[in-house]
Amino acid sequence: MKRKWLTILILFAFAIAVSYLVGSCNKHDIVHPTTSLQQEVPAGFPDPKYKFQDNPLTEEAFQLGRKLFYDGRLSRDSNFPCASCHQQIAIFGTYEHDRSHGYNFSHTLRNAPPLFNLAWQQELHWDGRFTSLYTEATQPILTHNEMAENFFTIIFRLGSDTQYRRMFSAAFGNPVPTEDKILRGVAQFTGTIVSSHSKYDLYKKGQATYTTSEQNGYQIYQSKCATCHPEPMFTDYTYRNNGLPVDTELNDYGRMRVTRRSEDSLKFKVPSLRNVNLTANYMHDGRFNTLLQVLNHYTNGIQNSATLDPLLVNKISLTVTEKTDLISFLKTLIDSTILHNSRFSKPQ
User: Is 343 within 8 Å of 62 (Cβ atoms)?
Assistant: First the structure.
């Protein structure tokens, strides 16, 4: 019996070694027919930070990444694909949850940020821990309270799937799955989800008109929100302490976890206001359920500290009517096309 299991173990290790060897040899130089894709850069948007130079966009790699994104086999118990925390119904965030659920139904540390317009981000995650879509995709797969898996096991699973072997071959010229190919495929899927078709976008093109409440809210946004959430991305991608008291159970100090500098304590990346009505819960730990709670925080809930953003020292003055109008404006930032775009839906 021991000899049998030893043989199986040796064969398994050999298969993994071969997959890495084959996948690493001239992996970017293999010439095979693919369908090139053009990166979408909407009119009025700045140049994206990431242009896929090291991971040329193709229809085949995109479709592979799409399948991987929805496949539970990338997680230890097959119950937690990428899509379990990044749901299309929530613009690829977590729908109405404070923090996401991971392997063994544990809670993650933070609220899952929505996955759109990622190519315009220099750094990823609430604390900017990752500097590429490629490395960012690694973290949830390996983390114990998220997908909790390892690439050896994933490669073994996918390598025995005939459809996957065909898709890896179509995308990268070789049917053998590797960590590199998996991450490149997922990066192509998540990196090409672009949000630019809201009522606001139509308004800026002269193709839609605002109601009185929406117009008033737009003016309030411009005078009281736009410094940290500038158009057209509705974020400046900086890290700021917005006056939230630390959750003593989570003890999450944000950017400081990355830089180890005290001046970064309690600073988190400024999120985009695009689609904000669809991405509840709010803040890095999902502590607020509604936008009204968020606005109430800025009017009377800000906690002073050494790293509090100077713009918030005096809080933000908003009347009840101004809050109503501001929320009306924020609703015009919803891009419902993503919710119903079958290209980003789970493959049948």
Answer: no
